[in-house]
Predict the structure.
Amino acid sequence: MALEKGFYTQEGIDVKIVHPSASVMATERLESEQSDIISLFLVSALSMKNRGLDMVNVAQMSQNSALLFVAKKSSNISKLSDLNGKRIGIWESGFDEIPKALINSSNYKVTWVPILSTINLFMLDGIDAMTVMLYNEFDQIINAGINPEELNTFLCSDFGYNIPEDGLYCLNKTWLTRKEDLQKFVRASLKGWEYAKENKQETLDVVLNLMKEEHIPTNLAHQKWMLDKMLELIEPGTKNVKKGELSESDFHKTQSILIEEGYIEKKINLTEFYKPVLGN
Amino acid sequence: MRMIFNINKSLASRIVFYVLTFCVFLFLISLSVFYFFSKKQIEEMTFKNAEAIANNTVYKTEQVLNPITKITNNYKWIIENSDLSSDSVYSITRRIVENNPEIMGSAIAFEPDFFKDQGHYFSPYSFRENGIIKTIQLGNPEYEYFVMDWFQIPMTLEKPYWTEPYYDTGGGNVLMTTYSVPFFRTINGKRKAVGIITMDLALDWFTTIVSGVKILETGYASVISRNGTFITHPNKDWIMNQSVFSVANELNSTELRNIGREMQKGKTDFVSSTLRGVERKMYFTPLPSSNWTLAVIFPKAEMYLPLRGITIILIILVSIGLILLTFIVTKIVSEQLSPLSHFAKSAHEVAEGNFNADLPEIKTQDEMKNLYDSFFHMQKDLKKYIENLKQTTSAKEKIESELRIAREIQMGMIPKIFPPFPDMTEIDLFAMMEPAREVGGDLYDFFLIDDRHLCFAIGDVSGKGVPASLFMAITRTLLRTVAPNQQSPRLIVNMLNKSLSQGNDSSMFVTFFIGILNVETGHLRYVNAGHNPPAIIHAGGKIETFEITKDIPIGLFDSFDYEEKERTILKDDRIFMYTDGITEAENWDQELFTEERLIQSLLSARTLEPVEIVMSVARDVVIHVNDCLQSDDLTMMCILYRGK
């Protein structure tokens, strides 16, 4: 909405939003300087930083985890421990760190079945459970005819894994040289979210039109659900931060999980990773 | 409306109103029955039609889909039963596409590392591009086909799988689906799926078939995928975007969501659902080969459009019919009943005295004719009767007038001035006579024979009315002729008797009491010819009656000699004379007044003046009869002897 409503232009910056394809990942675009700013999950960013990509978090948009396990009640999985020994679908392309950490911390042995992006294998009982995003796949399952009361859900946040997700990242180099532009960008982006919150119908119309232009199948009911959930995710709630800020404890917790799970080897300082462009 | 307002005034309007009301009622009943049964019929026909259309469409699509499954199974058999080299797989995929024009592409994809010489990925794929068949190897780290639905699902489920439709990757708008069948090999004695053979199928033909379905005005068919997604729909924006469930969500319709779930179960059903305020009927049935669902949907109201048309025409026709009926019935009834108003007018004229009022002309031989006849006779009889009545009335009036005169004459014959002898202090006298009819047969009279003798008489002629009055007049006239020259009551009565008996052909008679009182001495001589004995009210209050004599009424035997009696009347005695009209006055219970009551009456009035005594008795008689018709003449006379 920031782009649609001209908030970026008002700040005096020219912004173009590029959607990463399956073949070109966002981090690759950042690294090759095709993109100045990318959106990335906190866990992915920490891993990449650890692997040597010199980037920094300039704003933490998502404050909460949208990840959950979902299982049909007919598969007799009613508590987390019932997942032990089961086949669980998980994205082949990422976002798998936290669900896996949750299962591993409980010492459950599960068969992870990599899936691309659809819910069809789950629908046809090819797997016992799957990891989904509350705002996306969960609603797809509902919109494929399964009633919420026929499902058991296990939100990662309910098991101590309320790990923030999307944040805005840029190369350290960019942060050093174009701090003002970054400030403008983050400010306008947050303004965009505020606008979306106040003008949901307009936002939905804009999104639906964009998706129609891109030939991406969707519908109003799903996008409405998604917008509502996204707006919930960016609220800090009880966390001692403002919108767009990264909580220090979240940062440390995420880093600990990633070390424990072997995704990263050495710890980095918050100040090295998180360089907010707004506020102080 | 005028008719309705006038129904109480006009018989014709009322008949027309009732006939019409009944017709409208009959029509409404018939229309309702017609509508009800036609509606049922139409519903049944439409449902059958929808079912037939759906089944026909399913049949058409299966005609295309079925061969695909057969071809795939054939190649599956070949792959499973021959020891193929990896190279020959390429030629198989190519041959599949070459030999089957409806197949846009075909892949034979193997599980990871199946052919040692081909590495991790091996999935030869032949496809059409601009009319040329190209063959490539699909799998690579960028295209991990192992996690794609078309490979992963049939491999996992070990069952053939029709993928959810998708737009082809060429960026075109062609909707595709892929039919994937796992093939098996027995490895280490265990049969397991080792790969997938796929057929890519464009769904444009499918869309054409389904979009071609029309039912009623706006009814259509739609195909819904296993996940509820619309594959075909008249609203293009819905295709691949909306699912039954997302629409149900947007419209907040649990009903539609439940219908979607029934579809997913592969059921066939006829349901209705109200969406956006419109009730729609929906017939759905599965496409057997793909587990998709075909639904035929139409607004319920459209079913009844033809019926509505017919009903409107029917209502218009019947309304015209009813108007015509009103007109005709009004005309017929008015014509038939028109003599009635003529009759009414005539009756009015007759009532006003015009017995010659003309009657309507009746040509029919029905009730109206009967009415005419009755009316005619009535008019004739009435005329005659009224004429008779006129004559009778005039005669009666004449008689009445004569009787009135006769009464006046009769009443003029008896003295009516009281006190009659104001200068004579010795006596006081009062009398009254009240005939039962205009004239009566009673009489009384009194006069002074000389300055010392008072003659007084009272009588009652047998019978009543005119004959009695005439006899009374004769008696009184004779009395006045005879009495002044006679000092003896006996001689007076004998003479009266003689005169009256002669030529008395009608055998009338008169009871008669006559007395001559010496006003100085109180000596009374009297004759009682069969009359009620008078009463004497003595000054002391005692009442006695005169003795009963053997003398007969006068007028019966001319030679009868009457006996004269005498007695002395004392000072302040009162002689009370009366006719039997007093004692025989009847009340409603036919009780007579009787002598006892008379005595009682006299007792209570004994000290009073004669006029008061007479009036008192008269009042008691009136009270006794209590408005009962007076049957006899009432006559009383009372004399108070004061003496010297």
In short: The longest helix of chain A spans residues 179-198.
